[in-house]
Amino acid sequence: MTMTAPRGSQKGHETAPAPAATTSGLTELREMFTRNLRTSGIYIALVAIVALFALLTNGASLSPGNITNIVLQYSYILILAIGMVIVIIAGHIDLSVGSVVALTGAISAVVVISYGMPWWVGVAAALATGVAIGAWQGFWVAYIGIPAFIVTLAGMLLFRGLTLVVLDNVSLSPFPSEYGMIASGFLNGLLGGYGYDVFTLLIFALAVIGYAVSQYRARQSRLRYNQTVPPFGLFIAKIVVVGLAVMAFAWQLATARGMPIVLILLAVLIMAYSIIMQRSVFGRQIYAIGGNLSAAALSGVKVKAVNFWIFVNMGLLSAVAGIVFSSRTNGAQPGAGNMFELDAIAAAFIGGAAVSGGVGRVVGAVAGGLIMAVMSNGMQLMGIDQSVQSVVKGLVLLLAVAFDIYNKRRVGSN
């Protein structure tokens, strides 16, 4: 009898906590979905906006030709968004990127069209110009201490004026066909007689496999350190959903003209800068500077050097965008790149970057840029006036920043 009572009491003790365990599991699941609302919400918003415009345009926005056009028409904004989100994470802003796009495109046009040099010499000249511009602005921001807002505002005026001087206030065109391939070329060598490009499907299938493997390895790494991970079923569901979405996108490209060369360039940039920002010392130093400048300096971060290279990088990516844009338009115009800086800034903030710095991701900025691209393209297909499009974009940007501020206050109150 002495053993029965403990057994009975033990049994009662085992069954009693069940509701508490269930409540704890539900709470943990709820926290899992809300913990990364800033980063996951942008992808949900992107899917919702794509679905909305697919309905409003009777599926025209999801046609193979239109999806290809979105990639070609907005690739340079996404390239700028990659650099801009890094600048914003560090607590700065760059208002000059549109003018830098115009100037680097103009330099490339003069070298290739006016002087008759090979197309790659024009590309090299544009890249060198972008790096020099970034070093110029980085010097004033990092070593002289002038706020980036003022330096880049001056740069916006300065480089726009230099563009007019370089082009003598006239447009230059056309580029050689090789130069045009940068933004308008396709890789579709395995198209054959299937009616779709096997090469494009193969590349995207490999990308999905790589994504699945990387996610599984990240999950196993978290488990080894006893960190919280989603249930395995939810993990598999996420991989399947992402894979289906990516392959649906690949199918649309494959049934149009194949893999755009500029999409390969964009993918390489996204992967490279995601690794830099998430896994390198330089990336962690950028987050540290934007999160708490004084603490970063006290911890040994060379703040001036990091800020300098941030702007050098922004100048380089602006030059890449300038090359892509001039290739897309098959020439250089004095008014090229007008308002590009606002599109890039909007993409970064819509993608989850914080106004005060220290927060943001490269992939999020690209998603924010895609939201702007899908909205612009969808409204154009619907025949909506340009003025109304600007109103909608402004409201979306305002709501994105308001959401960021709301999140900060909610976290602070907790």
UniProtKB/TrEMBL annotation:
Record PANTHER family: ABC TRANSPORTER PERMEASE PROTEIN YPHD-RELATED-RELATED (PTHR32196), XYLOSE TRANSPORT SYSTEM PERMEASE PROTEIN XYLH (PTHR32196:SF32)
Highest rank taxon of the organism: Bacteria
InterPro entries: ABC_transp_permease (IPR001851)
Location in or out of the cell: Cell membrane
Pfam families: BPD_transp_2
Membrane-topology annotation of the record: Multi-pass membrane protein
Function: Part of the binding-protein-dependent transport system for D-xylose. Probably responsible for the translocation of the substrate across the membrane.
Name by which UniProt lists this protein: Xylose transport system permease protein XylH
Primary localisation category: membrane
